[in-house]
From TrEMBL:
Gene3D superfamilies: Glycosidases (3.20.20.80). This is Glycoside hydrolase family 1 protein. Pfam families: Glyco_hydro_1. It comes from the Bacteria. The active site is at E379 (nucleophile). NCBIfam families: PRK09589.1 (NF007154), PRK09593.1 (NF007158), PRK09852.1 (NF007356). The keyword Nucleotidyltransferase does not apply. It comes from Ectobacillus funiculus. PROSITE patterns: GLYCOSYL_HYDROL_F1_1, GLYCOSYL_HYDROL_F1_2. Its EC number is 3.2.1.-.
């Protein structure tokens, strides 16, 4: 068979992706309040806190470092960074707004003008270079006050506070932002409820009912954001955002195939089905029954969800997962976000994430088959340790290889007929890792001189991949 030439559509949205809490720093500047990542320590203890968040939400500077406090100081250096994105030819830049810059405690009636003005400046700077902002409304954070006083999203009151927050954003930025998405990797809270839901779960019994009730509140809030976006900003598009991890059966034993299917339904499709199809999928009802979950649903909630589905599906893709029903600890792969067994056909990153470009083509096909809505890959990339040579250069050919193979897979999926809007690799500039709180897990085209111990000049340097990606964009994906 001849190899077809893969064409990326005209207007394909090439760019890069970041999140406020991993990028900005200035954690108490401009009137900002504390948010959940501000009290997440760095280093090995961070993962433990994410998975078992029985901590008291107080700062312990004498005990831990809080890498988000300075992050890479985008708060003061955004002009320099945006100029570098423009040099690479970005069409879009994905960033998130920190809720606690706009409403420092989360439940106030009046927003913080300084916070609003900061994002005005950032959006203006992007638009100056014709870079469209792609905005995540909530990326793994909520004001800490909402966690302490209300118990995070387990409280219905957060729907009201969120509505006030998004109304403020749409009103203020309606002439500047066309692409929005509601909750980052909404399904990841199934595994780490502290991240997006702000739930400090202490025990297993405390997991099922509160987590799914909190999800219900987020789905209502998300549907309301979709409704408001469509009413307030004609022509804007608003998506959901899920972490998609295609799940393979470890072998062809039907027991294992069924097991993988059920894992995939719950993790990959539960949230998307609600936000894209507008209703709870049938499979979740059995799960709720088996775990004694009974949701409190108010009158009008299900209609709101049904009538306000998203315009596109944004997703992150880093790895696939391989599963079997009965596994022992020694089958389990070291680093994958949500476990699974080792896939003998795949290599792993330095953090044990299994690298699988074909899995991206599979994901795009699966998502498109299921939803028939445009897809936007808003995160993908290789976290790696980079070395700065004596002359200041950084040869990250391993990153180029990784991205090249994944972009090829996107081209194949487009050829399969999948509608893909764009591609924004994660951490286009080095930033704080969400899972480790460290700097040494780098994803960027731009190196930032900052280290795990907090030292460094914060100077920016172009890596080899910077020049490579610039050419990818300039040729609309023809030269890889
Ligand atoms: C996603 C998150 C991002 C980001 C990325 C890489 O799950 O949406 O916030 O950090 O993963 O993960 P990490 O930083 O842990 O390597």
């Amino acid at each position: 068979m001849n190899e077809l030439k893969k064409q990326f559509p005209e207007g394909f949205l090439w760019g890069g992706a970041t999140a406020a809490n991993q990028l900005e720093g200035g954690h108490l500047e401009g009137g900002k309040g504390l948010n959940t990542p501000d009290v997440l320590p760095g280093g090995k203890v961070r993962l433990k806190v994410l998975k078992d968040p029985g901590f008291d939400f107080e700062l312990h500077p004498e005990k831990y470092t809080y890498p988000n406090h300075e992050a890479i100081d985008f708060y003061h250096r955004y002009k320099e960074d945006i100029a570098l994105f423009a040099e690479m030819g970005f069409k879009v830049f994905r960033l998130s707004i920190a809720w606690s810059r706009i409403f420092p405690k989360g439940d106030e009636l009046v927003p913080n003008e300084e916070g609003l003005a900061f994002y005005d400046r950032v959006f203006d700077e992007l638009l100056k270079y014709n870079i469209e902002p792609v905005v995540t409304i909530s990326h793994y954070e909520l004001p800490i006050h909402l966690v302490k006083e209300y118990g995070g999203w387990r409280s219905r009151e957060l729907v009201t506070f969120f509505e006030r927050y998004v109304t403020t954003l749409f009103n203020r930025y309606k002439n500047k932002v066309k692409y929005w998405m509601t909750f980052n990797e909404i399904n990841s809270s199934l595994h780490m409820p502290i991240l997006g839901l702000g739930l400090a779960i202490q025990t297993e019994e405390d997991y099922y009912q509160p987590t799914f009730q909190a999800y219900h509140h987020q789905f209502v809030a998300s549907a309301r954001a979709v409704q408001l976006c469509h009413e307030m900003i004609p022509g804007a598009q608003i998506g959901c955002m899920i972490v998609y991890i295609p799940t393979y059966a470890g072998d062809c034993n039907p027991e294992n195939v069924l097991y993988a299917l059920k894992e995939e339904q719950l993790f990959n499709y539960f949230c998307g089905d609600v936000q894209v199809r507008g209703e709870y999928p049938t499979f979740i009802k059995r799960y709720w029954k088996e775990h004694g979950i009974k949701l409190e649903i108010q009158e009008g909630d299900l209609e709101l969800i049904k009538e306000n589905t998203v315009d596109y599906i944004a997703f992150s893709y880093y790895m696939s997962r391989t599963e079997k029903k009965d596994k022992t600890d020694k089958d389990v792969v070291s680093g994958n976000i949500i476990g699974g067994i080792k896939n003998p056909f795949l290599k792993e990153s330095e953090w044990g994430w299994e690298i699988d470009p074909i899995g991206l083509q599979i994901s795009l096909n699966q998502l498109y088959d299921r939803y028939q809505k445009p897809l936007f890959i808003v995160e993908n990339g290789l976290g790696a340790i980079d070395k700065v040579e004596a002359d200041g250069s950084i040869h990250d050919d391993y990153r180029i290889d990784y991205l090249r193979e994944h972009i090829k897979a996107i081209g194949e999926a487009i050829e399969d007929g999948v509608e893909v809007m764009g591609y924004t690799p994660w951490g286009c500039i080095d930033l704080i890792s969400a899972s480790t709180g460290e700097m040494s897990k780098r994803y960027g085209f731009i190196y930032v001189d900052k280290h795990d111990d907090g030292s460094g000049t914060l100077e920016r340097k172009k890596k080899q991949s910077f020049f490579w990606y610039k050419n990818v964009i300039a040729t609309n994906g023809e030269e890889l």
